[in-house]
């Protein structure tokens, strides 16, 4: 499995890409493989300010529903609209077209507390 070096990771299997103070968030390749075929992504927190660890949505696979946890504090600003008609993008391109949300990060320095690719790989392997 691949874990891009440019991303940060959580123990709950979310990834985060920071550009300025805007973060793009999705689930890792490991997470999508564990879940199986993704059939629905639900995020009802657009416009809300949440804390790290708060549930920002759910991802539904054929056999299970799993909560999605916010990696850092901030405001949820955007949902990947493509997932409404093509939730399988999370399976086929978890680090690209399968992203889930964008958020305005409260403190970009918080990103440093997340795992590097090497640390995440150690966690899941």
TrEMBL record:
<dbReference type="GO" id="GO:0009249">
    <property type="term" value="P:protein lipoylation"/>
</dbReference>
<dbReference type="GO" id="GO:0019464">
    <property type="term" value="P:glycine decarboxylation via glycine cleavage system"/>
</dbReference>
<dbReference type="InterPro" id="IPR017453">
    <property type="entry name" value="GCV_H_sub"/>
</dbReference>
<feature type="modified residue" description="N6-lipoyllysine">
    <location>
        <position position="63"/>
    </location>
</feature>
<dbReference type="InterPro" id="IPR011053">
    <property type="entry name" value="Single_hybrid_motif"/>
</dbReference>
<dbReference type="Pfam" id="PF01597">
    <property type="entry name" value="GCV_H"/>
</dbReference>
<keyword id="KW-0450">Lipoyl</keyword>
<dbReference type="InterPro" id="IPR000089">
    <property type="entry name" value="Biotin_lipoyl"/>
</dbReference>
<protein>
    <recommendedName>
        <fullName>Glycine cleavage system H protein</fullName>
    </recommendedName>
</protein>
<dbReference type="InterPro" id="IPR002930">
    <property type="entry name" value="GCV_H"/>
</dbReference>
<comment type="similarity">
    <text>Belongs to the GcvH family.</text>
</comment>
<comment type="subunit">
    <text>The glycine cleavage system is composed of four proteins: P, T, L and H.</text>
</comment>
<dbReference type="GO" id="GO:0005960">
    <property type="term" value="C:glycine cleavage complex"/>
</dbReference>
<feature type="domain" description="Lipoyl-binding">
    <location>
        <begin position="22"/>
        <end position="104"/>
    </location>
</feature>
<dbReference type="InterPro" id="IPR033753">
    <property type="entry name" value="GCV_H/Fam206"/>
</dbReference>
<dbReference type="GO" id="GO:0005829">
    <property type="term" value="C:cytosol"/>
</dbReference>
<dbReference type="InterPro" id="IPR003016">
    <property type="entry name" value="2-oxoA_DH_lipoyl-BS"/>
</dbReference>
<comment type="function">
    <text>The glycine cleavage system catalyzes the degradation of glycine. The H protein shuttles the methylamine group of glycine from the P protein to the T protein.</text>
</comment>
């Amino acid at each position: 499995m691949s874990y891009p070096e440019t991303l940060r990771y959580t123990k709950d299997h979310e990834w985060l890409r920071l550009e300025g103070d805007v973060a793009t968030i999705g689930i890792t390749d490991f997470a999508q493989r564990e879940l199986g075929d993704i059939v629905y992504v639900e995020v009802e927190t657009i416009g809300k300010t949440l804390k790290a660890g708060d549930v920002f949505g759910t991802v539904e696979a054929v056999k299970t529903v799993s909560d999605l946890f916010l990696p850092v504090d901030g405001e949820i600003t955007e949902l990947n609209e493509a997932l409404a008609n093509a939730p399988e993008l999370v399976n086929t391109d978890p680090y690209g077209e399968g992203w889930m949300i964008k958020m305005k990060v409260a403190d970009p320095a918080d990103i440093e507390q997340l795992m590097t690719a090497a640390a995440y790989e150690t966690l899941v392997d």
